[in-house]
Amino acid sequence: MNLGEVSAHCYNITTSYLSANNDSAIIESTKVAIRITRNHFLQEIFPRWNPFSDQISFSYNGGKDCQALLILYLSCLWEFFLSSIQVSQYPPEYHLFPLKSLPTVYINQAETFRTLEESIETTRSRYFLSVYESPRNQTSMPEAFKNYLEHNTHTQAIVIGIRYTDPFGADLKCVQKTDSDWPEFMRIQPLLHWSLSNVWSLLLYSNEEICGLYEKGFTSVGSVNSTIPNPYLKRSPGADRDNNGLKNHFEWEIRNAYGKEEPTDEVRVSAFSSSDAKILQEAGTLNYYPGWFLIDDSLERAGRARR
Ligand code: FAD
Ligand code: MG
Ligand code: MG
């Protein structure tokens, strides 16, 4: 595979999702969300910052939101490529996809889970990300980006997987300048209108491998010291019959996931590191329902607390 091929693959995922023969409320609203994001990329963002130059970078921390956004970004990149060669007399296979790797920035500030680090490595090669990794523990987030821009002087805009329901997310816009205490560049935030259930619906349908922490009950991942599995997903003894009243809202997406030949309940997650298993075991937090069992946006960060 190369970046063009994985972009085409992501395009096929979103196209297949949009034609899904299922009218659950979550899937319907996710289709609307996908179309809005797609319009942002194709009509507003790519015509302004050429995605085949080094004007745009992608901010990536291995989380579910930026992975869902990455799938959409690559899908749109493929569409943008197809439209750019439309005028040519030669069929698509005669055109070279103009990008070999995607400029990506990961601010590696705090101590992270080994499972997340390994999953970032997997996605790095899966999606041909050329990851700039900031030196750990050296800088604040704005300083780290200042550093990034000093190394990548052509960067004008950075894509961010933030949503309205995130802390301080409510008043953000899809395209806006950074605040005055940040280095100056354009923030590109085309996932703002996505709910937690939209993110899970697309991600689980995509059949792409996701970070293994989510299967262990994490819903939002911060540093090792500040994140535990979501308490609302704790399995209580003997309550397995009714899943504590929790329901998997994504059975259809999982069973009919893109590229599955037979419907199965398997979700592709990255390997769960034994060192993280030890951390969770010591904290007594090993027995949780998967993160995607939680779809209430207001509870997404309930696992963010000091141990
Ligand atoms: P998460 O869901 O963890 O993150 C939301 C998204 O932020 C991720 O999908 C990813 O795209 C990006 N992101 C988060 N952590 C990292 C990381 N360690 N490395 C790389 N990307 C990451 N705040 C301001 O107040 N003013 C600003 O002008 C401003 N500009 C920003 C510009 C960029 C490029 C980024 C990435 C962040 C900026 N922020 C700014 C901070 C932003 O609003 C969020 O607070 C921050 O991204 C953390 O998100 P979260 O942990 O709440 O949510
Ligand atoms: Mg998030
Ligand atoms: Mg975060």
UniProtKB/TrEMBL annotation:
Keyword Transmembrane: no
EC number, as in UniProt: 2.7.7.2
Gene Ontology BP terms: FAD biosynthetic process
Pathway terms, separated by semicolons: Cofactor biosynthesis; FAD biosynthesis; FAD from FMN: step 1/1
Keyword field: ATP-binding, FAD, Flavoprotein, FMN, Nucleotide-binding, Nucleotidyltransferase, Transferase
Domain spans labelled Phosphoadenosine phosphosulphate reductase: 56-228
Reactions catalysed: FMN + ATP + H(+) = FAD + diphosphate
EC class: transferase
Pfam family name, one: PAPS_reduct
UniProt cross-references to InterPro entries, sorted A to Z: PAPS_reduct_dom (IPR002500), Rossmann-like_a/b/a_fold (IPR014729)
A GO molecular function held by the record: ATP binding
Protein name (database record): FAD synthase
